[in-house]
UniProtKB/TrEMBL annotation:
<comment type="similarity">
    <text>Belongs to the ATP-dependent AMP-binding enzyme family.</text>
</comment>
<keyword id="KW-0276">Fatty acid metabolism</keyword>
<dbReference type="InterPro" id="IPR020845">
    <property type="entry name" value="AMP-binding_CS"/>
</dbReference>
<keyword id="KW-0436">Ligase</keyword>
<dbReference type="InterPro" id="IPR042099">
    <property type="entry name" value="ANL_N_sf"/>
</dbReference>
<dbReference type="GO" id="GO:0046872">
    <property type="term" value="F:metal ion binding"/>
</dbReference>
<protein>
    <recommendedName>
        <fullName>3-methylmercaptopropionyl-CoA ligase</fullName>
        <ecNumber>6.2.1.44</ecNumber>
    </recommendedName>
</protein>
<dbReference type="InterPro" id="IPR045851">
    <property type="entry name" value="AMP-bd_C_sf"/>
</dbReference>
<keyword id="KW-0479">Metal-binding</keyword>
<dbReference type="GO" id="GO:0006631">
    <property type="term" value="P:fatty acid metabolic process"/>
</dbReference>
<feature type="domain" description="AMP-dependent synthetase/ligase">
    <location>
        <begin position="27"/>
        <end position="411"/>
    </location>
</feature>
<dbReference type="InterPro" id="IPR000873">
    <property type="entry name" value="AMP-dep_synth/lig_dom"/>
</dbReference>
<dbReference type="InterPro" id="IPR025110">
    <property type="entry name" value="AMP-bd_C"/>
</dbReference>
<dbReference type="Pfam" id="PF00501">
    <property type="entry name" value="AMP-binding"/>
</dbReference>
<keyword id="KW-0443">Lipid metabolism</keyword>
<dbReference type="GO" id="GO:0016874">
    <property type="term" value="F:ligase activity"/>
</dbReference>
<dbReference type="Pfam" id="PF13193">
    <property type="entry name" value="AMP-binding_C"/>
</dbReference>
Length: 551
């Protein structure tokens, strides 16, 4: 028998039939097909797709002329402005890696990132120049610093622009370069395109590295998961520094969409953009939904089209979903991590669920969902045996991912990378259950399970019960050390404006929905701390709860 495989003989990979995937091709295609279509709206500024591509090429050319290329890091601390969109394309055009810095970080953390990333060029919005100046004093690296001076920065801004701290001006740097720059291929779709640091709540943050293949595939997957048609209009309420804006800076080129830039997330600005520009899609944490539905009447604007709101984190309470629907928004629930390029799971809604009663429908909405179109495998597994747990909606295991939208690994941290990929799966650290129909539902972070008297209590389950109270706006439940029980649930509760509650009333409410041992023993009324992307900073609250346990 001839062992030669005819399908692998004389059918070699070549330039004609194989090109490395890259999200840079999305912009190039959009500029070819829709050169005059508006790609970017920023205040009074408008950029067509032709201009968007030209500006990105100029940035790439300018960087290449000063020696930036493959293996180099270009760091940016920018708001949601055209410069940030141009950086997402112009930087990787040179083969370099884009490092987007969280604009809410302090100087010490920024300095750590600059050193760890070995930053060669740093582009800074003048809004953030004071903190960056402090970071540069602490950092060992001495990058070329370029100031971005936003001409649309409002005169009535809460803070004036900071001083120039660089040796070059961004617009002058870009404008002086030619538009005929030919990007690097990339040579391999495994080439790195972006660096994003985790929150670093336990020690120094880890640098998550993305590749061109994953970023390209996320473009297609985001279009499908978000239900984007031709020429969507996307409002930038999600920070572009967060997982590269869930890869949406690259996504919109797939469908020739329009980016509507937004420096600060404010209710009036969001409603104005929706009404004036016909915004069809936006992303954000649940706090952004609260801003929209709780906005003062004078800040709201009427619009006559349905707007898709993609949200991650915990599932929104039914009252919030109802408020969003009444206001004209369709909510799509997503879940993912920095290590999965942002969203990798979507609550793919089935039309038959619309007919369910409120309770069962809410139960369906509470589930994180099924794998993204670009993710190959999603499972809930026993981390010790590496076997899937029963798909019964009850058995808890660790959520694990496998596929092309999982990070390359952690920069300069082989040990953490190997641990994250142990057994051939990415270990998320999240605990969840798999339902019989294949839908995932989170139960907790592994470190957030409360063990009280030998019983496991899911903080998410307690939080869900608390969110059902109409006076509660935001909540987080963590473990408080207890001499008798080991740990007990401690709830940090932020009330809606003008509402009042007592600790006894909160506990009584929970007892109508939960077993008594799951109910909070302690209730603290406060402003619940959140990150710049709306995630609750539980590590701060765990510290507070530990102090309470020592009293």
């Amino acid at each position: 028998m001839d062992s030669t495989n005819a399908y692998e003989t004389g059918l070699d990979r070549n330039a004609a039939n194989y090109q490395p995937l890259t999200p840079l091709a999305h912009l190039e295609r959009a500029a070819l097909i829709h050169p005059d279509h508006t790609a970017i709206i920023h205040g009074r500024q408008r950029f067509s797709y032709r201009e968007f591509l030209e500006r990105s090429r100029q940035l790439g050319n300018a960087l290449a002329e000063i020696g930036i290329g493959k293996g180099d890091t270009v760091s940016v601390m920018l708001s949601n402005t055209p410069a940030m969109l141009e950086a997402h394309h112009g930087v990787p055009m040179t083969g370099a890696v884009l490092h987007s810095i969280n604009t809410r970080l302090d100087a010490a953390v920024i300095a750590f990132q600059l050193d760890h990333a070995a930053t060669r060029v740093l582009i800074v919005d003048r809004e953030f120049s004071p903190v960056m100046a402090e970071a540069l004093k602490l950092a060992t690296v001495k990058p070329l610093v370029i100031d971005f001076d936003d001409s649309e920065y409002p005169d009535d801004a809460p803070l004036p622009k900071g001083p120039r701290i660089g040796t070059l001006d961004f617009d002058a740097f870009v404008s002086a370069a030619g538009t005929d720059f030919e990007r690097s291929a990339p040579d391999d779709e495994w080439d790195s395109i972006a660096l994003n640091y985790t929150s670093g709540t336990t020690g120094n943050p880890k640098g998550v590295v993305y590749h061109h293949r994953g970023a390209a595939m996320m473009g297609y997957a985001n279009v499908i998961a978000s239900g984007m048609g031709r020429h969507p209009v996307y409002l930038w309420t999600l920070p572009m520094f967060h997982c590269n804006g869930w890869c949406f800076p690259w996504t919109l080129g797939v469908v020739g969409g329009t980016h509507v830039c937004l420096r600060w997330v404010r209710a009036r600005a969001m409603y104005d953009a929706i009404a004036d520009h016909g915004v069809t899609h936006l992303c954000g944490a649940p706090i952004v939904m609260s801003l929209l539905i709780d906005a003062a009447e004078e800040d709201k604007r009427a619009f006559d089209h349905l707007v898709t709101f993609n949200t991650a984190a915990a599932p929104p309470p039914e009252s919030v979903l109802a408020g969003m629907a009444e206001a004209g928004f369709q909510v799509v629930h997503l879940y993912g991590l920095t290590e999965t390029y942002g969203p990798a799971v979507v609550n793919e809604w089935k039309t038959g669920w619309d007919a369910l009663e409120s309770g069962p429908r809410t139960t369906m909405k509470a589930r994180q969902g099924v794998r993204y179109p670009a993710l190959e495998n999603l499972s809930v597994m026993d981390p010790e045996t590496m076997q899937p747990v029963l798909a019964d909606g009850q058995t808890i295991g660790e959520v694990m991912f496998r596929g092309n939208i999982v990070m390359k690994g952690y920069l300069k941290n082989r040990e953490a990378t190997e641990e994250a990929f142990r057994g051939g799966w990415f270990h998320s650290g999240d605990l969840g259950v798999m339902h019989p129909d294949g839908y995932l539902q989170l139960k907790d972070r592994s470190k957030d399970i409360i063990i009280s008297g030998g019983e496991n209590i899911s903080s998410i389950e307690v939080e869900d019960a608390l969110y059902k109270h109409p006076a509660i706006q935001s909540v987080a439940v963590v473990a408080r050390p207890d001499d008798k029980w080991g740990e007990t649930p401690c709830a940090f509760v932020q009330l809606k404006p003008g509402r009042t509650l007592t600790e006894a009333e909160v506990i009584a409410h929970c007892r109508t929905l939960l077993a008594r041992f799951k109910c909070p023993r302690t209730v603290i009324f406060c402003e619940v701390p959140k990150t710049s992307t709306g995630k609750i900073q539980k590590f701060l609250l765990r510290d507070e709860a530990r102090k309470l346990g020592q009293e």
